[in-house]
Amino acid sequence: MAILRSTLLLLLILFCLITYELQVHAAEGQQVGEGGVKIDCGGRCIERCSKSSRRNLCLRACNTCCYRCNCVPPGTAGNQHFCPCYASLTTHGGRLKCP
């Protein structure tokens, strides 16, 4: 009987964790125009540009990209596959805009 209770408790905890993860990923994947949640661009860009040698330039570009895409990749560089919109923005010269 104790094994059954432990198994049920474990399954309940697992179900709650999966449900939470699905909600988090669903909120990150929504577009702002479609009723999605707007992220904190300032905080995410400060983290993204923390190791940049030209911090003000990095923050300006990152905030522009974040406001357009509502997404900033994790970490200080790379990981652009998490935000396809962020990774695809370019300058007038054809160079990648977002740090």
Strand count, sense and closure of the main sheet?
A: none
Overall body shape: elongated
Number of helices: 4
Work out the helicity level.
55-70%
Mean pLDDT across every amino acid position: 83
Beta-strand content estimate: under 5%
**CA-atom Rg in angstroms:** 19 Å
Give me the count of strands: 0
N-to-C order of helices and strands = HHHH
Give the uncertain stretches in residue-range form: 30-35
Structural class: mainly alpha
Written account of the structure:
- Helix content is 57%, strand content 0%.
- It has 4 helices and no strands.
- This is Gibberellin-regulated protein 3.
- Keywords: Gibberellin signaling pathway, Signal.
- It holds the Pfam family GASA.
- Residues 1-26 form the signal peptide.
Concise account of the structure shown:
This protein is mainly alpha-helical.
Q: What key phrases describe this protein's structure?
A:
single chain, 99 residues, mainly alpha, 57% helix, elongated
Topology:
Elements lengths: L1 H28 L11 H8 L6 H15 L14 H5 L11
Helix pairs in contact: 2-3
